[in-house]
Design brief:
The strands form 2 sheets. An 8-stranded mixed β-sheet has the order 1-2-5-6-7-8-3-4. Strands 9-10 form a two-stranded antiparallel ribbon. Helix 5 (about 160-170) links the parallel strand 7 and strand 8. It is α+β, with helices and mostly antiparallel strands. It is flat and about 90 Å long. The chain starts with 13 loop residues before the first strand and ends in a 10-residue tail after the last helix. It has 14 helices and 10 strands. It folds into 3 domains: about 15-195, no CATH class; about 200-280, no CATH class; about 365-419. About 30% of the residues are buried.
Length: about 425
């Protein structure tokens, strides 16, 4: 028996744009921009992406010499470049960096390029065959059409001196040479799917649930109604009536009285409620289901999303979850680290050979420092069935007190107000 795919569409469609001479990033050439807009509109999507990105760039480079190195004229540091690249990975599964060279074929500067602005040119592009095109309005939001004169073209990253020399000659000399683009994605030099792609519809659902709640508060949580009235004399009169109704919907206008004058005794209107069964239950299920799907897709332990040590998660739980997610994202940090190692190779920067990215440290507070923890400690100290020795042992083993402090607190005549 064979499994067949009959109704599943490709997540992105790659199609050459012959007019622009580029390979479109999905059918509308706006996949990364669309993904970014969807994520930004969702609270859960934004939070998960933020946490994922945080673990990709970690605590920054372990080497301070590398982390603090200024890599371009805008005084961007290597650590800041890592931060920007990690954020791009969390949204798009890739990042792009511009590289400049000097006449000795050494790398002289690195600059972050917004990943969503990068497109590949096709072999049919007569002027810029198989290069990287960079433009900040592929979706034509700022302008009704793409300004081809504003599209910037760069060669792909290749530090081979012979290749660079050829590119310089084709550009008309070093004064005209624009450098290269290091393009990295999880799929190589290809347009990748976003980390959120498999749950992108759930991210949209989460976004729309927010809109649904907002619309409810702005309409006083009223059910939908049909309002039947006499036929209006003209559209202007109709619109005035509708506008007056809208003015009575919203949290600021709740419980106001609307006065409608009748032109004659025969003029009537009626208001009929439209019932939607179990809308509350359906909404709650849909919202929680979408949120859970997004979190599962990112493999983020729930304690990292809402954790406060001693309240929504103990210090050990947060530490374990942090260690787990450092493991989940270790491949990303390893790949990004290798990219930076390659970039700084044969450069003018003296940064050493350590390109390791430091893992995220668990943001915890000792349980004994939280109100809940202090309450538990007081319970132990107030327990008349516990000996001083037992109390001291509990304080040491469960709450991390040193022996001297634990022995003092465990004294039966101790003032518990000091906790």
């Amino acid at each position: 028996m064979k499994a067949t795919v009959t109704d599943i569409e490709k997540r992105i469609t790659l199609k050459p744009n012959k007019t622009l001479g580029i390979m479109s990033y999905d059918i509308d050439n706006g996949y990364p921009q669309r993904v970014q807009d969807i994520i930004n509109s969702s609270g859960t999507g934004t939070l998960c992406t933020k946490i994922f990105g945080k673990f990709v760039y970690g605590q920054g480079f372990v080497s301070d010499a590398l982390a603090n190195t200024i890599v371009n004229r805008k005084r961007l540091t290597a650590d800041k470049l890592l931060y920007k690249s990690g954020k791009a990975v969390s949204k798009f599964n890739g990042f792009a960096i511009h590289v400049n060279y000097n006449a000795n074929f050494e790398k002289t500067s690195f600059s972050y390029i917004p990943f969503q602005d990068v497109r590949f040119t096709t072999a049919d592009n007569e002027k810029h065959s198989e290069m990287v095109a960079v433009y900040d309005d592929w979706q034509k939001v700022k302008m009704p059409k793409i300004k081809e004169e504003d599209v910037l073209y760069f060669n792909y990253y290749n530090p081979n001196p012979a290749v660079i020399q050829k590119e310089v000659e084709e550009a008309g000399g070093w004064q005209n040479y624009k450098g290269q683009i290091m393009y990295w994605s999880v799929d190589g030099v290809e347009y990748p799917l976003s980390p959120s792609d498999s749950v992108l519809e759930d991210v949209q659902t989460d976004s729309h649930s927010k809109i649904f709640k907002f619309r409810n508060i702005t309409t006083n949580f009223m059910a939908s109604h049909f309002l039947k009235v006499q036929t209006f004399e003209d559209e202007e009169q109709k619109q005035e009536f509708i506008n007056s109704l809208v003015g009575f919907q919203g949290s600021d206008d709740a419980s106001k009285i609307m006065v409608v004058e009748q032109e004659s005794e025969d003029e009537l209107f009626s208001l009929e409620k439209v019932d939607i069964q179990d809308i509350g239950d359906l909404y709650s299920y849909t919202e929680s289901s979408a949120r859970d799907s997004i979190i599962r897709a990112y493999l983020i332990p729930p304690v990292l999303l809402l954790a406060v040590a001693g309240k929504l998660g103990s210090s050990s739980e947060i530490s374990d979850a942090t260690a787990f997610y450092n493991g989940v994202t270790s491949d990303y940090r390893h790949e990004v680290s290798n990219v930076f190692k390659e970039l700084f190779n044969n450069s003018v920067f003296n940064v050493g050979n350590d390109f390791e990215i430091e893992e995220v440290e668990a943001e915890t507070v000792d349980v004994k420092e939280t109100p809940e923890g202090k309450a538990k400690i007081l319970e132990v100290l107030s327990n008349a069935n516990y000996s001083e020795t037992k109390k001291s042992n509990i304080l040491q083993k469960l709450y991390g007190f040193d022996k001297e402090t634990a022995d003092i607190l465990a004294l039966d005549d101790n003032d518990l107000n000091v906790i």
